[in-house]
Amino acid sequence: MSIVSSTGLGSGIDIQSLVTQLATAETQPQLNAIQRHRDTASARLSGLGTLKSALSDFQTAINALKDGSAFRAHTSSSSDESKLKITADAYAATGTYSLEITQLAKAKKAVANVEFTGGVTSALNSGTLSFSAASGDSFDITVDSSNNTLEKLRDAINKADGNTFVSASIVNVDNATHTGTVSKLVLTAKNTGTASGFTVSGTDDGTIGGNVSLSQLSDANLDIKTPAQDAVISIDGQVATRSSNSITDVLPGVTLNLAAQTEVNTPVTINVGIDNDAIANSINAFVTAYNKLNSTVKNLGKYGGSTDGSGSGNGALIGDSTLRYVATQIRQNTTGTVSSASGNFNSLAMIGVSIDKAGVMSLDSAKLKTALAANFQSVSDVFSSTDGVATRLAGKLSGLLQSGGSIDSQQTSLNKTISKLDDQKDDVNVRFQRVQAALQKQFIAMDSAVGQFKSTGSFLTNWINSL
């Protein structure tokens, strides 16, 4: 029954207000209790989300240290980048090298001597044009009525099946007497090096005649502008010949990009070393993430003055066993010694990473630099060996963050609790409507009876007064 907001006509009572107050008085305490439980569950759910996020950030910071990639960062330099540029990857061989560039790799380029006076539409005889590379690859072009013009021959060469080594193009230039313009076919190897050099032979079959014989495109009639050539270098006196000017297999992990020949007895000096600054940055990222996690754990578990955990100053996870476990495990696995470390360094403290009484971690860069110089592998082992700090922490974090783990299980349970509380709240609201409707019905009936009594009283009063 809908509630009409009006004053009782018989009694003069505000039935709407009275019914609402009575129904609220009966159901509000239960709603308040449900909301308190829901607020507590929501706060804990939010706290677990915050903890999980901080743990994930910490996990990201330790991953580079766990797999050792942070300790594979390298620096590389060339004493003359106009002649040689170098890059070093994670597995580069460190050291100083002397390199001379005797010869650069070049791609063969040839121009057909025949002049096509009719331009790109000049006709050719039908027949076969054969291409072969020093590598052994080859392909043939059948020239017939579908492609016996210069431009169609160019396209046929570029699109031919099996063509992995030559590109065709056309240039429009002066003729030999500089009295007009002619077109010429240009053939260029797709790759540098002698293995990509090519030869051409043309044979007419006489089926279709044209202005130009295919034999005029054979090797004997090609003007070699650039011969195929390999790169030749000498590194610390040892000669290496390669087909490309980008060489990746002479120094492990180092790419040599040749740009120009060096002068006689004037080598380029190459330096490849460990990038200590990058390593320090990775460890600093670890320190920052640790302090963020430590601060988060403290805030989530802090006591703000209420023994039941409901005080506004309390952390969302005060008294939570998972939070205590996280704090204990992170601290123990960070500060403990590393049994699998080689050399003289077997803890974070020994390489410059320390934790003060307040639990704040810091890095002594000078101490780290000294440790790296003294025993690089030992420093790496502190983090990435089988019992390394990052290895141990990664195992703990994986367990904490995995699906079905302690945090995930609590989140699932809390979500179910909140859902049930919402259902209970809906049930109480339905009960409120029912109580309100029942009370309204009773008060309307009362108001009607009072109205009848008043009407009867008025009638009797008027009747007596009329006697």
UniProtKB/TrEMBL annotation:
Entries under Pfam families matching the protein: FliD_C (PF07195), FliD_N (PF02465)
InterPro entries to which the protein is assigned, alphabetical: FliD (IPR040026), FliD_C (IPR010809), FliD_N (IPR003481)
GO biological process, alphabetically ordered: bacterial-type flagellum-dependent cell motility; cell adhesion
Residue stretches spanning the membrane: none
The organism's place on the tree of life at top rank: Bacteria
GO CC terms in record: bacterial-type flagellum filament cap; bacterial-type flagellum hook; extracellular region
Alphabetically ordered keywords of this record: Bacterial flagellum, Cell projection, Cilium, Coiled coil, Flagellum, Secreted
Domain Flagellar hook-associated protein 2 N-terminal, first and last residues per copy: 11-107
Domain Flagellar hook-associated protein 2 C-terminal: start-end pairs: 228-454
Primary location class: secreted
Compartments reported by the entry: Secreted; Bacterial flagellum
Family from the record: Belongs to the FliD family.
Purpose: Required for morphogenesis and for the elongation of the flagellar filament by facilitating polymerization of the flagellin monomers at the tip of growing filament. Forms a capping structure, which prevents flagellin subunits (transported through the central channel of the flagellum) from leaking out without polymerization at the distal end.
Subunit structure as annotated in this protein's UniProt entry: Homopentamer.
Protein's name in the database: Flagellar hook-associated protein 2
Organism of this sequence: Methylomonas koyamae
